[in-house]
Amino acid sequence: MNISLNITPMSDWMPNKELPLLIAGPCSAESEEQVLKAAHLIERDHRAMIFRAGLWKPRTRPNNFEGVGKEGLDWLARVKRETRLLTTTEVAKGEHVGQAIDAGVDILWIGARTTVNPFSVQEIADALRGHDIPVLVKNPINPDLQLWIGAIERINQAGITKIGAIHRGFTPLSQSIYRNDPTWKIPVELKRLIPELPIICDPSHIGGSRELIEPIGQKAFDLQMEGLMIETHPDPDNALSDARQQVTPDRLSAILDTIVWRHPEAPNKNFATTLEQLRGEIDEIDEQMINLLAQRMGLVEKIAEDKKRNNVTILQVSRYEQLLNDRIKKGERQSLNPEFVKAIFEQVHQNSIRRQEVIMNAV
Ligand code: PEP
Ligand code: MN
Fold first, then answer.
1. Same domain, 247 and 299
2. Tens digits of residue pLDDT in 269-300
3. Directed axis angle between helix 94-102 and helix 118-128, to 10°?
4. Do 230 and 286 belong together in one domain?
5. pLDDT tens-digit profile of 333-346?
6. Atom of ligand 1 nearest to the CA of 241
7. Is residue 5 part of a domain?
8. Which residue's CA is minimally distant from atom 3 of ligand 1?
9. Does the C-beta of 207 come closer than 6 Å to ligand 1?
10. Among the listed residues 86, 132, 90, the one whose alpha carbon sits nearest the alpha carbon of residue 109
11. Residue 233: which of 22, 23, 25 has the closest Cα?
12. Are residues 252 and 314 in the same domain?
């Protein structure tokens, strides 16, 4: 897949390069008083850099609170005047972009329900053309990495280079402890494909409950994500949207005290040398493993030829059973998780069968 993006590093536009990018604020702007109160309380924690508040709220069902709309833009402008925080809000239509930029909002984000629709994303991209403002793109609600990348490309092609992704999880298909399943392999794959793209995690929308914010946030940092967006409200229980997942500013600080921010690299030279050495050893072992698998497959091929000559079935269940038990036991003696060993040998065995089938059915 050919992805070519022109991305300005986040360190060029974020307020403090030493810290992860931390966005905090209520799910929705509800009143001028609530917005200002939230911002002044959040500002007390030096780690908070950006104040979020949704003005145009995409709600799943009608007749819920749908946001205060452009009236709230003045409240965000007051937050900027009265605190050190930058501001951000969600844009879902072209007209939101112009209104937010005119009101001095510093950063825009595109919501999960908008990212799913290329027409909407394109409308936003067209409205962004000619502006220089950072834009964060949330993942689509469905686990479709291409759709997420496509939205990022549309915004980038409109000339926005200060760009980042927000991982907020995916609608679960079956019962889940999460409001939105994190499916970490998707943001990890995004990072692999576009390493220069910053990814920020939104543990509030993934977890859907206060208790899950800390462990999800930790996992995000363990996976090298660059920041967090945490919904923070002065009175979460009475919030007009997403009440269960919002935390007070005090609880936000407590969560941030607990989460350990890990760096992809360490300034400590000894650490870097040891890491390199250990990785070198791992690379060697992996190579040996590949060689051994190839050798093993060579033996499997010989067996297949023999079975073919003697007209014997490919699968001998008793042998497979015995092999699996033996490997699991040996693994356990070396403190390897039995599930792990079983999964590996199931794969090895399946592939041996497939190879034998090819050989035995060849004419
Ligand atoms: C939000 O950030 O409040 C929001 C609506 O998020 P999402 O688009 O991730 O559902
Ligand atoms: Mn919300």
1. no
2. 788 788 888 888 898 899 889 989 999 999 99
3. 30
4. no
5. 999 999 999 999 99
6. 3
7. no
8. 27
9. no
10. 90
11. 25
12. no
